[in-house]
User: Fold E3 ubiquitin-protein ligase from Euroglyphus maynei.
Amino acid sequence: MANLEPCPVCRNQPSHPIKLPCSHIFCFLCAKGAILQNPKCPLCRTNISPSFLNNPHLIQTESIPEITDLNIEYHWFYEGYDGWWLYDKQTSTEIENAFQNQEPFVELLIAGFIYVIDFEEMAQYRKEVPGKVRKIQRAKTDPKIKGIAGLKTSSFPIQI
Ligand SMILES: [Zn+2]
Ligand SMILES: [Zn+2]
Assistant:
């Protein structure tokens, strides 16, 4: 399959690409970050309901196997309502690197917000909203996985 155009937000090959109703294509996390802050397509300003992010239209491309091809032994998860979300590959790699370096916490930009990943509490929270804490875990597998970074597993096959 042909490569997609670069994501208009981050200028990289789209990671977990989704197509908005206006048919523009972005990384899932880039679109999520933009739409949560301003519910419009970042490119053409078409109104996009934030609820669109709950059931996004994922585009099948060669980049999809990248989701499952996490070339690491341990995976990082954060707590959802009835299971665990796997962090996306880039975030997972950054968390694992900080953990391996025995840093007490790491701050990461995820979908437009700064999150603190706290290894002592094994929790994550938004830096500006420290009250909203989610548990995190480092594990080889988890049977109650919901999906990746807010993308439900029903959108694509996943094996870890
Ligand atoms: Zn992007
Ligand atoms: Zn658009």
Summary: The two ends are 24 Å apart (CA to CA).
